[in-house]
Design a protein that fits this description.
By secondary structure, the protein is an alpha/beta fold. It has eight helices and seven strands; from the N terminus they run H-H-E-H-E-H-E-E-H-E-H-H-H-E-E. The chain has a seven-stranded mixed beta sheet, sandwiched between helices. A hairpin with a 2-residue loop joins strand 6 (about 225-230) and strand 7. Helix 2 packs across helix 3. It is globular, with a radius of gyration of 17 Å. The relative contact order is 0.16.
Length: about 240
């Protein structure tokens, strides 16, 4: 049973850094639905794009798989395809709960509890990074994208969803305010919004769409586009 997200509903004397621990796992589905505009659309279309680009005999990766929303969305589209889905997350609590969610999936799914920087990748036709790269240290992001590109078959697709920032300060402030209004409309208080923002500071480090696109081009992806954006959240596709 999914619990409502009340993690930051009371004042915390010592907030600490945000972490994907047991407390977050308990409320994660509610948290992400109320915090990320367009999340349900991104997850659903991740499955649709996997159905379009997954190649027979290949691997399909969900890097930073958390509770398996993207994993299951892809599994539903690949029931008749000779593919193996591999979900990777470094949170043992997330992987343990995810196993219960994927138990009835008919498409083969392997879960790995390890760092996505260290996990081996090969023979990939679809790779998903949904709200994952933003938690990777900035100095390690290029090497991860390069590793993904090197493991990908020609014609394969990378789906990259992220919180983004804007180079223009006015647009940055506008979209931050719109996002906070979105969260308040979904029932979060000013205290919750402020405390969550503080806990994520220096943990979630966003970049501009242009920075993501440049990194993808340098890794060898030939076709790159932002297919979805709402406020300061966006999803890109990059085709090898």
């Amino acid at each position: 049973m999914t619990k409502p997200d009340t993690l930051y509903s009371h004042p915390h004397a010592n907030l600490g850094r945000f972490a994907f621990d047991e407390h977050v796992v308990e409320v994660f589905p509610d948290m992400i639905q109320r915090s990320v505009p367009g999340y349900a659309t991104i997850i659903a279309m991740t499955g649709v794009m996997a159905g379009r680009y997954a190649q027979s005999g290949s691997n399909v990766y969900d890097l930073g798989s958390s509770l398996g929303a993207s994993t299951l969305s892809m599994a539903r589209e690949l029931t008749e395809r000779d593919c193996k889905i591999i979900g990777v997350d470094n949170s043992a609590a997330m992987i343990e709960r995810c196993r219960t969610y994927i138990a009835d999936a008919t498409t083969p799914i392997e879960l790995r509890c390890e760092s996505i920087q260290d996990t081996p990748l090969s023979n990939a036709s679809v790779v998903v990074l949904n709200f994952t790269l933003q938690f990777i240290p900035a100095t390690e992001r290029a090497s991860l994208i390069n590793k993904i590109a090197a493991a990908m078959r020609p014609g394969g697709i990378l789906i990259l969803s992220e919180k983004i920032r804007f180079a223009d300060q006015h647009l940055q402030e506008l979209n931050t305010d719109l996002h906070h209004a979105f969260k308040r409309a979904n029932g979060y208080s000013e205290l919750e919004v402020a405390q969550k923002r503080s806990a994520l500071e220096d943990v979630l480090v966003p970049e501009t769409i242009a920075e993501h696109q440049q990194r993808l081009r340098e890794a060898g992806f030939s076709r790159i586009d932002a297919w979805f954006q709402c406020f300061n959240f966006a999803s890109l596709v990059a085709i090898k």
